Amino acid sequence: MTKPLGRIFASVPVMLAFSTGLAFAQGAAKTLSYDDYDLKDVCSDATPGVGGTFHLRAYSQGAGFDPAHINFSVEAGRAVYGSLTRWDVQSQSFQPYYAESLTGNEAGDEWVLKLPAKAGWSDGTPLTAEAVKKSVERFLNPDFPNTYVPMLKLISEMVVQDDQTLVIRLSKPWGTLPWIFSQPPGMIVNPKVLDAVSAKDLGAAPPAEAGLGAFTFAEWVPNSHIVLKKKADWWNGRICLDEVNVTWSAGGQANYEAMVAGQVHYFRSFDGPAVVKADANPDMRLYRAPWVASTTEMNHAGTALKDPRVRQAVVHAMNGAIINQRIWEGIGSESHTLVPPGVAIHPETAPLVYDAEKAKELVAAAKADGWDGKIRFSINNTPGNVNQGILQQAMAKAVGIEIERDELQIGDYMQKTRVQKNFEMSMGAIYLDESCSWCPFSLYGSGHTGNWMSHSDANIDAALDVLRAAQGPEEIRSAMNGLQAAWNEAVPAGVTGWLANAHIISNKARGVLPGATNAEVHIDRAYLTE
């Protein structure tokens, strides 16, 4: 028996749903009012008026337009390539986007992908099962290290049944496999382009026929902007926008002010003050994005943080309640759990909590064994992050830890921490993905290509295996209890608290469809009202 993509998640509600639609987790002093999508209010033949430039403010620049690159420019790249599936926030289910359907068997270890016969690239190359297979297989090439490798390795074989049908067989059950096709592996690159263009050239300037999306690459001025132009003839219908201008800034307040000034139509933010202002502004719409855990990422290789006592001390030193009130405007949660309170799968297993006396004991023990008590703390230098870093520095000092802040521009921060792994501790995040509870935590598994903390622990690995196979809220909550217990012992990273996260859209823009993950926003059906 097979179940269609949308029904799997309607009948098995495994998503990380809020217990209420508007309230944040326990401990929050404020609530936010989220808008509902109007899925019919998108670009169509009946849409009055056309044209204009859509201004998209991305969180970071990324390293280019090759979907298989570990630092893919995902917001801009999605407009070029599109994706086979899309997560629909309102129905809490996956929907086919460029695919026709994706169905899985009861066991969740075999899936059938159907493609629309009309789909294809601008050079006349049709979208086929063989093209999908070839594009996905690039992500398993050791020349293209990326965070999706451990997930894609679950695929034991992909069988081309016919031009429009691909059978995907897994070595282990994965009930939320449609997630992978809403991410870069689902952004299918024209096979003729893959044969003709190097990965370097694809990343720097993809040819017009590279992607299935509504837009083509026009210009990239590093550290300034990206320009995308609409296709003259698109297989998927009318395009209402003329072009897309992509800039980037992680600063929520700066992005909010740019939207007020009419310079930006979309940005995503977990900057508390900016989110609160946007929620109160009648010229903006607020859509719920995944919860974001503010984390202290700890390099386990060759630094003082290889000592679990030091890692535990850092976690015990952090007072989430103070950070929530002073930095996040009270709309976050002080909880140190792996899932915030108020979410259906919040574990009953207690996390490590703020305990200054316990932190002092651990610090003293580590110093007695030769540690000098110093940690270098790498931070992306947005105002909110810097303020939080100063506060965390003071909390650490109170328990005997001396922190040196290393404040970096976002590009330098990503290069130093994610690529070079040249850090001791860094300010990071876990995005609690509504559509795949296992996915955000999988990078803490041993050998994961995205595990820039060089962490390895057998108990964490075992708990992640249980979480991946879990279905339904009760099974997932039980699995999360096991992961929380293993996390408390190993402390691969510290959870400082949970931040409000929102997609913020100007009322001048319609048809923008955010999805489950932090960087999932579809603009191929967007249009401007003025």
TrEMBL record:
It comes from the Bacteria. Residues 1-25 form the signal peptide. Gene3D superfamilies: Dipeptide-binding Protein, Domain 1, Dipeptide-binding Protein, Domain 3, Periplasmic binding protein-like II. InterPro entries: Peptide/Ni-bd, SBP_5, SBP_5_dom. Keywords: Signal, Transport. The keyword Nucleus does not apply. It holds the Pfam family SBP_bac_5. It is found in: Periplasm. CDD domains: PBP2_NikA_DppA_OppA_like (cd00995). GO terms for molecular function: peptide transmembrane transporter activity. Residues 94-433 form the Solute-binding protein family domain. Its main location: periplasm. One of its GO terms (cellular component) is ATP-binding cassette (ABC) transporter complex. GO terms for biological process: peptide transport. Belongs to the bacterial solute-binding protein 5 family. This is ABC transporter substrate-binding protein. It comes from Falsigemmobacter intermedius. The lineage of its organism: Bacteria, Pseudomonadati, Pseudomonadota, Alphaproteobacteria, Rhodobacterales.
